[in-house]
Amino acid sequence: MKVKTILALALAATTLAACHRGKKPPRMDNSKLAISLSKPAKGDRAIYGLACLGCSDTALVLLPNGGGDPVRYNILDATRNHQVFGDIEVGDWVCVMPCEEKDEKNRADMVIDLDQLKATWTYPVMPKLRDVSHLSKRQQARILANMPDSIVDTYMVPRQYGFTLKRMSEAMAVGRVMVNKDVDDDSPVEYPAVPQYTEWHAYNGKLILVQGQRELDGVVMNEKTKRDTFTFVYMKGDSLALSDREGRIQGFHRSLDAMKANAKAHAAAEKLNSKMKKEILK
């Protein structure tokens, strides 16, 4: 009787301990989890994800942001039609525009390497003569040709305009050069305004650059939000070409640093600022 009592007590203790520990949670399959919690904007048909092993000129293996198994897309037609922008590398964040035909759901019409798009892109801009808008281009060219070399060297300095695209959809303008206001007012030339981009987004295979409100050195930029839409024309290596809504194509060059891109313009501006200070102190 004692043996049965002892066995019963032991069984009860074991059961109680098991209840206290509770059941082990089921093991989660992390391979099926979403790799990004961000969701595409309303109306955006594009599929976003990471490029996986197995990518080539004819195929793209994509791990979608929403998780699940990698999807293999046929990109042969996209490659032939020059609609693959960037050199796709494993681990890159890419955008895929799937074929609109129902029977071709795993065929892509366009592929964009968004990681390679994140960079500083610039293009050269030359100043124009002030107050000569009423003159023909030929007359303006003649005035410029007759300018003394010292004036040309001092004022006709090219600047690099463009933008830097960063993570988390952040964008920064390139092209702003600090010049003394008096120097700028006395200059015989003027530069076009620099688009002050603050955000960027991919949407249906296009690039959306946003000029949002921001404050810089106490000055409010972009009082009204403006969105510029661009179509990809070319992107490979250090070259990028975009087309705006009017069909105008602008080429860009990949720059290593936004400040270094305008080093010559900054040096010229500093030289003019120093010259103005000396004249004031005379």
TrEMBL record:
It comes from the Bacteria. Keywords: Signal. PROSITE patterns: PROKAR_LIPOPROTEIN. Residues 1-17 form the signal peptide. This is Uncharacterized protein. It comes from Segatella copri.
